[in-house]
Design a protein that fits this description.
With 233 residues, the chain is of the alpha+beta class. The chain folds into two domains: 72 residues, no CATH class; 145 residues, Sandwich (Immunoglobulin-like), CATH 2.60.40. Helices cover 15% and strands 30% of the residues. It is built from three helices and 14 strands. It has a five-stranded mixed sheet with strand order 8-14-13-10-11. A four-stranded antiparallel sheet has the order 2-1-4-5. Helix 1 packs across helix 3.
């Protein structure tokens, strides 16, 4: 059970919001060292710090994350660990790729693929395969859909093709990816391209370090997906 904190001195430690009813601090918000917070009456946020402290704050509140209290929510951390580091067959660790599933139900658990419908940042594990996910437009009668993918760093291009009713495809084998690379995907028939970046997760056994690292690089959709999966477990 999380411990309710009261105002106190700041600690020099970053954190990530993993639960929130506050529009000012949505899930995935990265909190800098000693950051001053302001919560309106009735608003609540749950914070996972880099040292795996769980902190829950309720508004009205103004001040930094309190320094007192070190007890972690072990059940929550265990669930997060399961979501981040699953290595059973078919469920590699976060950023690796769950098997590319034909007719996968939506919403797809977003620890597997880059979302080409919305773009943004995606965090992947170094050396792992990953893929590209698209939604299927309602009433789409086409046999296949394609897009032209290009690397902003190298200038490489590749055509990516989804067969009918296929949500996911693997990343093009010849398209190089380095940490922080940005890409553009122009889907056939779309008015504008989608831009996204790919970030390589560091090797660490710490759930908190991984979540905080992802938040700093903008992999918010993946964090939200992890929290959803965690809450359902």
């Amino acid at each position: 059970m999380m411990v309710m904190m009261s105002a106190g001195s700041a600690f020099a430690e970053q954190g990530t919001v993993i639960g929130s009813s506050s529009p000012a601090y949505p899930v995935g918000t990265s909190l800098a060292d000693g950051m001053e917070l302001s919560l309106e009456d009735g608003m609540n946020i749950s914070i996972l710090t880099i040292s795996a402290r769980m902190v829950e704050l309720s508004g009205p509140y103004a001040g930094p994350v309190p320094a007192q209290g070190n007890s972690a929510d072990n059940d929550l951390l265990d669930n997060l660990g399961d979501a981040v580091f699953q290595t059973d067959e078919g469920s590699p660790e976060l950023g690796g790729v769950r098997p590319l599933v034909i007719m996968a139900p939506e919403p797809l658990v977003p620890d597997a693929v880059v979302d080409v419908d919305h773009g943004g940042a995606a965090c992947v594990t170094e050396g792992s395969g990953f893929g590209l996910h698209r939604g299927i437009p309602e009433g789409d009668g086409g046999d296949w859909t394609y897009g032209d993918l290009s690397s902003d760093r190298t200038g490489q291009t590749a055509q990516v093709r989804w067969d009918s009713l296929e949500y996911n495809v693997g990343w093009p084998v010849d398209m190089a990816v380095e940490d922080g690379d940005s890409f553009t995907l122009q889907m056939a028939g779309a008015d504008a391209p989608v831009n996204f970046s790919v970030h390589t997760l560091p090797q660490t056994d710490s759930v908190a370090e991984r979540i905080n690292w992802m938040a700093e690089r903008g992999c918010v959709n993946q964090i939200q997906g992890l929290v959803t999966e965690m809450q359902a477990s």
